[in-house]
Specification:
single chain; mainly alpha; 13 helices
């Protein structure tokens, strides 16, 4: 499907897609997270939601891999993510099946609802605290719904990030577990989409190539980090995301 877009779309559309990826990388480079939150609504202006989700799968892996492998105890971190992963796997399977089964307008509505949920929840940022005995059931629950959001809109992270913060993770410990989870969930997303009849290995190659503009944006964002207050930037981005979600819903219902 991505190969078909390259052949059928005008150069202006492809340029707009590349620019959208650069902007998404800029966000990740500035605040460290949030690449698909910006990328999906921007890409959905030019290509369908299914193609946008596939296009983001490989950049999500490669942009998070360095942080996932940084330092030591990667195996231990993966074990600590077990509750989340146990919930994420069936959730991701369900989300991908929904994404592939619906038509374009329904996909826009689903993506708009996911974006709206992510934007509002992240903007309000509930400060939860989880007792040790509740880590397993809470992790499975957050992982399941995170997997659904990942399968339908390439956004498996935000709900799981709230869970990781509620466990008490901060700083490098949070970044490592969050990045490791994104690598794992994005890899599974790429496999599930490639195994479907709508995408193939050539689409994986296109998605891999999409990593380059994301990295260019990340490089620029890292140099902007000291010039913009990250919290202010994050809130402005999330407000824009909520507005983009409303636009997706409008196009889905009335498009």
């Amino acid at each position: 499907m991505l190969i078909g877009i390259l052949h059928s779309e005008h150069a202006s559309t492809i340029t707009a897609v590349v620019c959208s990826l650069v902007v998404a990388g800029l966000l990740k480079g500035t605040i460290g997270v949030g690449m698909p939150i910006v990328a999906l609504p921007l890409l959905s202006l030019f290509i369908d939601v299914k193609s946008a989700t596939m296009l983001l799968s490989m950049p999500l892996i490669f942009s998070n891999l360095p942080q996932a492998l940084e330092g030591r105890k990667t195996g231990r971190c993966l074990m600590q993510l077990t509750p989340v992963i146990l919930g994420m796997i069936p959730g991701l399977f369900l989300g991908v099946r929904v994404l592939l089964a619906v038509d374009a307008n329904v996909a826009r509505i689903i993506a708009g609802l996911v974006l709206m949920t992510v934007g509002v929840v992240t903007l309000l940022a509930p400060k939860l605290q989880i007792q040790p005995r509740m880590v397993l059931p809470t992790g499975v629950t957050f992982g399941f719904f995170g997997g659904i959001m990942g399968g339908t809109a390439a956004m498996a992270g935000p709900l799981v990030f709230i869970f990781l913060l509620a466990k008490g993770l901060r700083g490098k410990a949070f970044t490592k577990e969050a990045s490791l989870y994104l690598v794992f969930s994005s890899g599974l997303l790429a496999i599930l989409l490639t195994a479907s009849h709508e995408f193939g290995w050539l689409d994986v190659a296109v998605s891999t190539a999409a990593t380059l503009p994301v990295f260019i944006g990340m490089y620029a964002g890292q140099h902007m980090r000291d010039k913009i207050a990250p919290e202010t930037f994050r809130k402005l981005v999330l407000i824009a995301v909520i507005a983009a979600a409303a636009a997706l819903l409008r196009h889905g219902f009335f498009g």
